[in-house]
Write a structure and sequence with these properties.
With 427 residues, the chain is of the alpha/beta class. It contains 14 helices and 26 strands.
């Protein structure tokens, strides 16, 4: 059954909201478990659909996966011999499944991974994955919708420089290189906390990695890794979305489990427009100033810059802020679908290439809108909270991929957000 969120406007969010492990780390850590025979145990795993999909993908590759959503634990028992083909049926539902490419080529000497989302090999992301693996000694090509990699003579260390600090390419190269004889130097690597988390897991498993979290990572290949237990790093994107929720609704929210150090640029920007951000014993707190929010210019950049995943929340914030703001998207093309939906709520925004000019209005007006992805959907719920009347947000399945029981979290902060059956068009 299709579902939607029903959001009643006029709520100032107040209270404590929990943040658990990062989706963008948990999925990659699950893939990394393929590198070691035996049972790896991950804790602080979010109870979301994407983890369920990744668990099924690993099962198809031969692993035994137990996922306890209540405890937030995933246990992955990897056999001595695993499969090497990740089918389109699952890959199309989860772009992060491309992260099995590196572990499979390292363990099996070959990998067939369906091209996610219909991307061509020439797209920036997959091109960097392929070039990095080829530098390590693999042969990579696309055939019948699959990215096919093989290393009949094995992998070897190499000096690699990424044209762009791609998170996915950094992850795949890192996971492939840990079992490649020799030394790999990966320059212009992504620096996200999730990269550090993967490197930390791999080091715990016996890998030799230096420089994770900087632009230069050095990996000394080892013969084998062993399974371990590891806690997933807190979800900085979820934490940042709650920070914007507090600022947008003029609220007061403590993000329990959040790590403010992973959101330095974001929180500095919110502090600059009057929000009070303080560390707490359990996370950090965002207290918005009284009165209407002040507009805030944003430009997305690779970490440690402003995250592209928080861009929809920044647009929503500016939609009701006092003044005009420019939002610049430097990482992804056509990631402004939130703007079209916000316009249905009365937002004044104009798209110009990779810029959006937003002129804040005093209040939005409730209307039916539709989520196009995880973050856009979550941001539209926040927009509904600062709209007059009732807003319905369709496409709840997108939000569920990144937030477990989003409506329950909202209710815990005093919001009137409920889940209900969606009305089928032309019914």
């Amino acid at each position: 059954m299709n579902e939607r969120f029903r959001v009643v406007g006029g709520t100032r969010l107040q209270g404590r909201v929990p943040v658990v492990g990062a989706k963008n780390s948990a999925l990659k850590l699950m893939a990394a478990a393929l590198l070691a025979e035996g049972r790896t145990r991950l804790t602080n795993v979010p109870a979301i659909l994407d983890v369920t999909i990744m668990a099924e993908l690993l099962r198809r590759l031969g692993a035994v996966v137990d996922y306890d959503t209540t405890a937030g634990v995933v246990e992955i028992d990897v056999p001595a011999t695993i499969g090497h083909r990740a089918d389109y049926e699952l890959v199309r539902a989860l772009r992060a499944s491309i992260s099995v490419l590196g572990p499979l080529i390292a363990r099996c000497g070959e990998a067939d991974v369906a091209v996610p989302g219909g991307d061509a090999i020439g797209s920036r992301g997959l091109d960097l994955h392929a070039a990095g693996l080829e530098a390590l000694g693999a042969k990579v090509h696309v055939a019948h919708g699959y990215l096919v990699a093989s290393a009949p003579s094995g992998l070897h260390g190499a000096d690699i420089r990424l044209d762009f600090p791609s998170v996915g390419a950094t992850e795949n190269i890192l996971m492939a290189a840990v079992l490649a004889p020799g030394t790999t130097r990966l320059d212009n690597a992504a620096r996200e906390p999730e990269i550090v988390d993967i490197a930390t897991l791999l080091v715990e498993m016996g890998a030799r990695i230096h420089g994770a979290g900087t632009s230069l990572i050095e990996i000394e290949g080892v013969d084998a890794l062993h399974p371990v237990e590891h806690a997933v790093v807190p979800d900085r994107i979820a934490a940042g979305s709650w920070a914007f929720a507090a600022a947008t609704t003029r609220g007061d929210v403590e993000i329990v489990g959040g790590n403010a150090a992973h959101l330095e640029v974001t929180l500095e920007l919110l502090t600059g427009v009057g929000c009070e951000v303080t560390d707490t014993a359990d996370g950090f707190r965002v207290l918005a100033p009284e009165g209407r929010p002040r507009s805030l210019d944003i430009a997305t950049l690779p970490y440690p810059g402003f995250p592209t995943d928080l861009q929809p929340f920044a647009i929503t914030y500016n939609a009701v802020a006092d003044g005009s703001a420019m939002i610049t998207e430097n990482l992804f093309e056509a990631r402004f679908r939130t703007v079209q939906e916000l316009a249905r709520l009365g937002a004044e925004a104009r798209i110009d290439g990779h810029h959006v000019l937003v002129h804040g209005v005093g209040q939005l007006s409730g209307a039916p809108v539709e989520a196009s992805d995880i973050r856009a959907g979550a941001a539209l719920v926040i927009a509904g909270l600062v709209a007059d009347g009732v807003t319905t947000v369709s496409g709840v399945q997108h939000i569920d991929r990144g937030y477990a029981a989003y409506e329950t979290l909202m209710q815990g902060l005093g919001a009137d957000v409920t889940r209900e059956p969606d009305v089928a068009p032309f019914a």
